[in-house]
Amino acid sequence: MRFTKMIPNMFTLGNLYCGFLSIGFAANGQFNNAAILILIGMMLDSMDGRLARMLKADSQLGKELDSLADIVTFGVAPSFLVYYTYFYQFGLLGLMVAGLFPLFGAYRLARFNISTDKSSLNYFIGVPITAAGGIMAILTLFGDMIPNIVTTVVFTALSFLMVSRIRIPSFKEVPLPKYGTIVTIFLGSLLFVIWKGTYSQFPYLIYIATPLYVAYLAYRFVKGKNKNNID
C-alpha cells in the first residue's frame, strides 16, 4: 500500500529528471534531445495527478513536488533551450531575457498554489507553465522551419501570458479521446526527428515513455467507456 502511494511521486520525479537531462542536452548542443525530454516531461506530468486520484494517493507532498518539478522542466529547461539555440548570440542580454521565462512561470505557479479558486475545471487563469514549456519545446524541435523572430515573439508572449489574468480553457474534463491530440503532436514530432536522421541520438527513455503513455491513454479510454455503459 505504501509503495502504491509512492507511484505518483515517482512519475513527478521522473518529470523533474527529464528537465535536468534536457538542460544537459541543450548545453551539449543536442537540441532535439533536449526538446523531446521536455515533451516526455509533459507526458509524465499529465499522468501523476490522475494516478494520484486513481490510487487515492493525493498528498500535500505530491502537490509541492509537482510544482518544483514543473518549474524545472517547463520553466528552466525551455529557457536554456531557447538561449542555446538563439538568444546566445545576444550575450548577457540574451541570457537575461531567457531568464524571464522561469521567473514568470514560478510566479504563475505560486499564484495558483495559494489561489482559493481551484474548484473550476473549465479554465485556468493565465497560460499554465506546462503548456508554455511544451510549446517552446515544439518550436525548437521544428526550429529549421520556423524563423527565429517567431520563436522570440512566442517566447515573450508566453512569458507574459503566464502571469496574465486571461482565462485559458481547461481540458481536464474533456472526454479522453481528445487527449489523443497530445499523442498526435508528440508522435508527429518524433517522426519528424527520425526523418531528419537523428533517431540514433535519441535518449532511450523515449522508447519507454511513448508506449507507456499510449497504454495509459488506452486504459483511461476503456475505463471511461465502461463507466459510460454502466451509467
Class from helix and strand fractions: mainly alpha
CATH architecture: Up-down Bundle
CATH class: Mainly Alpha
Any idea what the CATH superfamily is called? CDP-alcohol phosphotransferase transmembrane (TM) domain
**Mean of all residue-level pLDDT scores:** 77
CATH topology value: Four Helix Bundle (Hemerythrin (Met), subunit A)
- How many strands, which pairing sense, and closed or not: the largest β-sheet? 2 strands, antiparallel
Describe this structure as you would to a colleague.
With 231 residues, the protein is mostly helical. It has one domain: Four Helix Bundle (Hemerythrin (Met), subunit A) (Up-down Bundle), CATH 1.20.120. It has helices at residues 2-27, 31-54, 60-85, 91-98, 100-114, 129-141, 148-162, 180-195, 205-230, and strands at residues 123-125, 167-169. 34% of the residues are buried. The mean pLDDT is 77. Belongs to the CDP-alcohol phosphatidyltransferase class-I family. GO terms for molecular function: CDP-diacylglycerol-serine O-phosphatidyltransferase activity. It is an enzyme of class 2 (transferase). It is a multi-pass membrane protein.
